Amino acid sequence: MRIATWNVNSLRARLEHVVSWLETHQPDVLCLQETKVADELFPHDPLNAIGYRAVVSGQKTYNGVALVSRQPLQDVRIGFDGLLEEDREAVVLGEQKRVISGRLGRLRILDLYVPNGASVGSKSYAYKLAWLNCLGRYVATQLEQGEPLCMVGDFNVAPEDRDLHDPQRFKGHIMASEQEREALQVVLGQDLKDVFRRFHPEDGHWSWWDYRSGGWQRNQGWRLDHVYLTRDLYDTAEDCWIDRQQRGLPRPSDHVPVVVELSGAAMDP
Q1: How many domains are contained in the chain?
Q2: 211 is catalytic
């Protein structure tokens, strides 16, 4: 089984890239973030034409997540309140379209677009920490249901210094502050593991390069797009890799796909 995550930074602007990538790599599920398209305008037809279907949660201009799959997903849940029905904060935070999940066989796939946070100490930063705190409650509730979980997305957090190109310069800044890192670790707890680091423990691996700083040309990036697996799935992983090639295409997203390969045992009952 092949599952991928990709912040496309506007699906309609990057649709040709996405369709080509699906045809080339044939993932079972592609989890998209920052689709920036309202549900009624989502481009289903080009995806259907190549054998994929999508379940979506989007809004105009900002945010937006989607699960694109070859087989129909079951028990689709949208927003934090799709699981935290009586959590008032979950309802408020769900106004921004950043959370969607679905089940493929016994496997639950959770697709997230974590807020950026703007700058440390700002209102957006406080929102990000509150959002991560709510995500912690959401994940804990999900894990109680006993489904193997694959949690992916743009987390807008570099978990460790090896996940950014210049740790001394950026440590303590947005996406690398201790509070963000600690909040993410609370979400992961003891049950979710970063599968990319199983195969690539060294530094120098990035999934995002800033448009504004010439980061791609200088290979100055961050690893912000992650795949986390529960322990039962972690043992079935055969590879996890970053498709850097996409960043070199004309009019690319500033993020590239991250792909996890799971053995058939991932679907065993």
Answers
A1: 1
A2: no
Q: Any known ligand binding at 254?
A: yes
Cβ neighbours for 100, distance < 8 A, ≥ 6 positions apart: 55, 56, 57, 65, 66, 67, 76, 77, 78, 79, 110, 111
Q: 62 catalytic, yes or no?
A: no
116 in a labelled binding site: no
Domain that holds residue 64: 2-266
Catalytic residue selected from 154, 225, 226, 228 = 154
Q: Where residue 238 sits, what CATH number does that domain have?
A: 3.60.10.10
HEC per residue, 158-202 = CCCHHHECCHHHHCCCCCCCHHHHHHHHHHHCCCEEECHHHHCCC
28: Cα separation from own chain's centroid = 16
Catalytic: 154? yes
Q: Residue 94: CA atoms inside 13 Å, Cβ hemisphere, count?
A: 18
Span 212-230, average pLDDT? 95
The rounded percent of the chain whose pLDDT value lies above 70 is 100
pTM tops 0.90: yes
